[in-house]
Write a structure and sequence with these properties.
Blueprint: E1 4-6, E2 13-15, E3 17-20, H1 31-43, E4 48-50, H2 59-67, E5 77-82, H3 98-112, E6 117-122, H4 131-143, E7 147-152, H5 157-170, E8 174-177, H6 192-199, E9 202-205, H7 236-244, H8 249-254, H9 257-263, H10 267-275, E10 281-286, H11 291-297, H12 307-317, H13 326-330
Parallel strand pairs: 3-4, 3-10, 4-5, 5-6, 6-7, 7-8, 8-9, 9-10
Antiparallel strand pairs: 1-2
């Protein structure tokens, strides 16, 4: 079964393998398959589920709400996010203004069929709204009982520090950040992780398998498999391109196979286990288009990778690793 970790400096425990439905529910896979994936997650011991209002323009939340209907609410940890445009894309249909946050939490709760979410996350930093306004609105969401804790996603170290200070002053907890993190994408290690560890903030990381590159299914010199994320024009291909454009990254991934074999793991399991070696990581988010993928990936829970094998992974991946902390700010929207 999946192990639990505390989220930040709070008393909330979440499963270190968390099920996420970005790019799948309401989009890539049919609803019946999506529900089967959620069922597989529950059967494997996953109780933490991550979504966002923007995923499939609110449809992903609806699908997740349906899939979790009938489960004991107190036994689940449900996360969602707010920032990106939803609905018809009106002037106030995005960002972290008080208006958008307070309207968005109500929509998310309705779609998720719950009275509260365990974690409500700022999906990006909003340069167009004063941070004080954003954090005051989040504080009101917590005090209303509609969210238990607040988190952020893809914030820089300075933004996390400023948000954490305001949350503390306002009497609620900012306990998590949700960044991209994998053996190939390590941009949080230099600044975000040390700052977060100091403040009692955990990472809930997305794309631990680098959009599928670290599974080894993309072979050097071969076209991407039909139906894979690299062929998904709805969004998947755009995110995975940064890895496929590097000339030798696919061969380096294949060269990790002996390390995975030594641990009795698949390359995908190795990738998920790798991010969980970071003590500031509370959970790795996995997605799935088939229930079997969930069943396989949860086997990464509880694994300890010896130091010598971690060093071998570093040596194999070499300069294909992206570690510049500036990438976090570079990928942030300058305005909503």
């Amino acid at each position: 079964m999946v192990s639990y970790r505390y989220l930040g400096r709070s008393g909330l425990k979440i499963t270190e393998i968390t099920y996420g439905n970005w790019l799948t529910h309401g989009s890539q896979v049919e609803n019946d398959t999506a529900k089967a994936c959620v069922r597989a997650a529950l059967d494997a011991g996953i109780t933490s589920f991550d979504t966002a209002d923007v995923y499939a323009n609110t449809k992903a939340e609806t699908v997740l709400g349906e899939a979790l209907k009938g489960e004991r609410r107190q036994s689940l940890e449900i996360f969602t996010k707010v920032y990106w445009p939803t609905g018809p894309g009106g002037a106030n249909d995005s960002g972290l203004s008080r208006k958008h946050i307070l309207e968005s939490i109500d929509g998310s709760l309705q779609r998720l069929q719950t009275d509260y979410v365990d974690l409500y996350q700022a999906h990006r930093y909003d340069e167009s709204t004063p941070l004080e306004e954003t954090m005051q609105a989040f504080g009101d969401v917590v005090r209303s009982g509609k969210a238990l804790y607040i988190g952020v996603s893809e914030w820089t170290a300075d933004q996390i520090r400023a948000g954490h200070a305001l949350a503390t002053d306002l009497g609620f907890q900012l306990i998590s950040n949700q960044p991209q993190y994998s053996a190939l994408w390590r941009v949080i290690e230099g600044e975000v992780v040390p700052t977060s560890a100091e403040l009692g903030v955990s990472q809930i990381v997305w794309s631990p398998v680098a959009q599928g590159v670290l599974t080894g299914k993309y072979k050097p010199g071969q076209a991407p498999p039909a139906g894979s994320r690299a062929t998904d024009e709805k969004g998947g291909a755009r995110f995975i391109g940064r890895f496929l454009e590097q000339p030798d990254v696919l061969q380096r991934v294949q060269d990790l196979t002996p390390v995975a074999d030594e641990l009795g793991m698949s390359l995908a399991q190795l990738a998920v286990a790798w991010v969980l070696q970071n003590q500031n990581v509370a959970a790795a988010i996995i997605g799935a288009s088939r229930p079997e993928q969930v069943t396989e990936n949860v086997k990464a829970s509880g694994v300890t990778i010896p130091a010598e094998l971690l060093a071998r992974i570093d040596a194999v991946l070499g300069d294909s690793v992206v570690s510049d902390p500036a990438e976090t700010a570079k990928n942030a929207p300058p305005a909503r």
